[in-house]
Design a protein that fits this description.
The chain is an alpha/beta fold. Helices cover 33% and strands 14% of the residues. The protein is elongated and about 65 Å long. The chain has a domain of 200 residues: Rossmann fold, CATH 3.40.50. It has nine helices and ten strands. The strands form four sheets. It has a three-stranded parallel β-sheet with strand order 1-2-3, covered by helices on one side. A three-stranded antiparallel β-sheet has the order 4-5-8. A two-stranded antiparallel ribbon has the order 6-7. It binds glutamic acid and zinc ion.
């Protein structure tokens, strides 16, 4: 049994306001943390400026407060952690655990969509170069807290993935793992759209020689056309007035008990009830794709 005190987190990207899908991730990670008497941290993943919407970070935080989803500690901003990311990359390069790559997207597409290690031993030094991690101990499967054993395809597992893009931006898998480590996260609870990135994050923990958190992926909310709700396809944002209704809706989506009388309660009271009644076994598992 793991005896470390539970630390969970919600890690939105500020590409737009919260929508039902991100509310489900926030709520699920919150309830899982609180039902373990754990801490629940919020981290703003603002390392991709072209995809950010001005004001979205503070809007998301205000929305969380409207739902009474109050976090512990101060909010972590990835944009303030760039030195740590660079330090890790420099160390990997020095240890020959990472290398520069000049392959174009077109070349990789022609190779079947996966990067096949073309630059592993070429060590290009000139031009616009991405940095890739040498995946010499691929992760082919892991145990998910909801989905059970998850297998990762060989091609995906073995790919030397990018940790710094050619435009200099740090890659999601790098930043998220270093932050989960630095913040002492014991369990990552998030949407199942990220389930297959877990192997890459586990690889980074291996390199750090640190125990990885547990991972639990929540079902995704799809719109009427079967598309995943995302900030990119302009899912409707949440207005504070409907906070109670939306919270109950998100709870129902997660397969949790919702009593009719709860609509009269405040968000804070709904959350108190929801923590008491929280159970993983009734969460529906949507097909992974
Ligand atoms: N920032 C990511 C997103 O908003 C989530 C990262 C994570 O939970 O690992 O999709
Ligand atoms: Zn290359």
């Amino acid at each position: 049994m793991d005896t470390k005190p539970y630390v969970g987190r919600f890690a939105p990207s500020p590409s737009g306001p919260l929508h039902l899908g991100s509310l489900v991730a926030a709520l699920g990670s919150y309830l899982q943390a609180r039902s373990h008497n754990g801490q629940w941290l919020v981290r703003i993943e603002d390392i991709d400026p072209p995809r950010e919407q001005p004001g979205a970070s503070s809007l998301i935080l205000r929305q969380l407060e409207q739902f009474s989803l109050y976090w512990d500690q101060t909010v972590c901003y990835q944009s303030q952690r760039l030195d740590s990311y660079q330090q890790f990359i420099d160390q990997c390069l020095q240890d020959h655990k990472a290398y520069f790559c000049q392959c174009s997207r077109k070349q990789i597409k022609a190779d079947g969509g996966y990067y096949l290690g073309h630059c592993r031993h070429k060590q290009p030094k000139q031009g616009d170069l991405a940095t890739r991690l040498m995946t010499d101990q691929p992760i082919y499967q892991f145990q998910d807290g909801l989905y059970g054993k998850v297998s990762i395809t060989q091609a995906l597992a073995e790919e030397d993935f990018i940790i710094q893009r050619r435009d200099g931006l740090y890659a999601y898998n790098l930043a998220v793992s270093l932050d989960d480590y630095q913040q002492g996260i014991t369990e990552v609870v998030r949407g199942a759209d990220l389930i297959f990135t877990t192997g890459r994050q586990l690889s980074i923990f291996k390199l750090l020689k640190q125990p990885a958190p547990r991972y639990l992926h929540l079902p995704l909310v799809y719109d009427a056309q079967g598309h995943k709700l995302s900030k990119q396809n302009h899912a409707p944002s949440i207005s504070g007035k409907q906070a109670q209704q939306l919270l109950l809706h998100a709870l129902g989506f997660l397969g949790q008990t919702v009593e009719t009388g709860w609509i009269e309660l405040s968000c804070e009271q709904i959350l108190t009830e929801a923590v008491i009644n929280w159970q993983l076994k009734t969460i529906p598992k949507t097909a992974l794709r």
